[in-house]
Automatic annotation (TrEMBL):
<feature type="transmembrane region" description="Helical">
    <location>
        <begin position="145"/>
        <end position="173"/>
    </location>
</feature>
<feature type="transmembrane region" description="Helical">
    <location>
        <begin position="54"/>
        <end position="75"/>
    </location>
</feature>
<keyword id="KW-1133">Transmembrane helix</keyword>
<feature type="transmembrane region" description="Helical">
    <location>
        <begin position="14"/>
        <end position="34"/>
    </location>
</feature>
<keyword id="KW-0472">Membrane</keyword>
<feature type="transmembrane region" description="Helical">
    <location>
        <begin position="179"/>
        <end position="201"/>
    </location>
</feature>
<feature type="transmembrane region" description="Helical">
    <location>
        <begin position="110"/>
        <end position="133"/>
    </location>
</feature>
<keyword id="KW-0812">Transmembrane</keyword>
<feature type="transmembrane region" description="Helical">
    <location>
        <begin position="87"/>
        <end position="104"/>
    </location>
</feature>
<feature type="transmembrane region" description="Helical">
    <location>
        <begin position="230"/>
        <end position="247"/>
    </location>
</feature>
<protein>
    <recommendedName>
        <fullName>Tryptophan-rich sensory protein</fullName>
    </recommendedName>
</protein>
<feature type="transmembrane region" description="Helical">
    <location>
        <begin position="208"/>
        <end position="224"/>
    </location>
</feature>
Length: 266
């Protein structure tokens, strides 16, 4: 990995700030008279995969992390940060796409277009995650606790949100995934769990990704899991797969230090 200092462009630093503005600002469109709140849209196509409402409180922390990242990356000290330079444009896509998803969903609904938008954001987040995993040197404090934590959490939540969006879209088009098709919904959860477990394994046991994804699974369990044993079983199996992946990988000292500090990454 080439960490030769190269100055980051002013365009990238400004674009990241604007992307966070779009990410957060789009959620206020209903208050300005444009569209309906996301929660209302979600309830209109509620499925067995839709998490309990309390789970969405995590967005407050995710938005806080995004704001901290936007401010931190714009500081003069990060002008030559090679890691931020590599993830910068991907973060613009990821954050702006989240705003685009919120805007579209509030004006339209959880349609196939919303699936495309949310998967675009998720793909960008997974590219960022790959860069975070590939770093050979120890992270700086800002890289670990601002960039690493924020984007790992966002990647996990968007993985879960993509599952929910796909299930809701199936209901929107009358295809399946709703209350009358619990096994289809359970299969969607299991596929998401397998993807998440693989993501944790391939990302050296990323604990923040695992924690946030399990938070989403817990919220699905306490809602859809109370109405269908298939959903309950799918969430438990998915959680066990993710927990196994994180514990197995973090048992390695180098992987543990990569994410949590306390030693030199190889």
């Amino acid at each position: 990995m080439n960490d030769t200092p190269v100055p980051r462009s002013l365009a990238q630093r400004i674009a990241i700030i604007l992307a966070v503005f779009v990410q957060i600002g789009a959620t206020f469109l209903p208050q300005l008279g444009f569209g309906d709140p996301i929660g209302q849209r979600s309830d209109s196509v509620r499925t067995l995969v839709t998490p309990s409402g309390w789970a969405f409180s995590i967005w407050g922390l995710l938005f806080l992390g995004s704001v901290m990242y936007a401010v931190w990356q714009a500081l003069p000290a990060q002008k030559y940060n090679s890691l931020v330079n590599r993830i910068g444009w991907a973060s613009v896509v990821a954050l702006a796409a989240q705003g685009a998803w919120a805007a579209y969903t509030q004006v339209a609904n959880l349609t196939v277009i919303s699936v495309i938008i949310i998967l675009t954001s998720l793909c960008a987040l997974l590219l960022i995650l790959r860069e975070l995993v590939a770093v050979k040197r120890p992270f700086t404090a800002g890289e670990r606790w601002i960039a690493g934590l924020t984007f790992s959490a966002l990647a996990a939540w968007l993985t879960a949100a993509s599952i929910v969006n796909v299930a809701a879209t199936l209901v929107y088009y009358g295809v399946g995934g709703g209350f009358s098709h619990p096994f289809i919904a359970a299969i969607i959860v299991l596929i998401g769990g397998i993807i998440a477990a693989l993501a944790v394994w391939r990302s050296r046991g990323n604990p923040w990704y695992a924690l946030v994804f399990c938070w989403a699974l817990l919220a699905i369990y306490f809602r859809g899991g109370q109405e269908s044993w298939a959903i309950a079983g799918a969430t438990v199996l998915s959680a066990l797969a993710v927990i196994y992946a994180v514990l197995a990988k973090l048992s390695d000292r180098a992987d543990r230090h990569h994410w949590l500090g306390g030693g030199n990454a190889p």
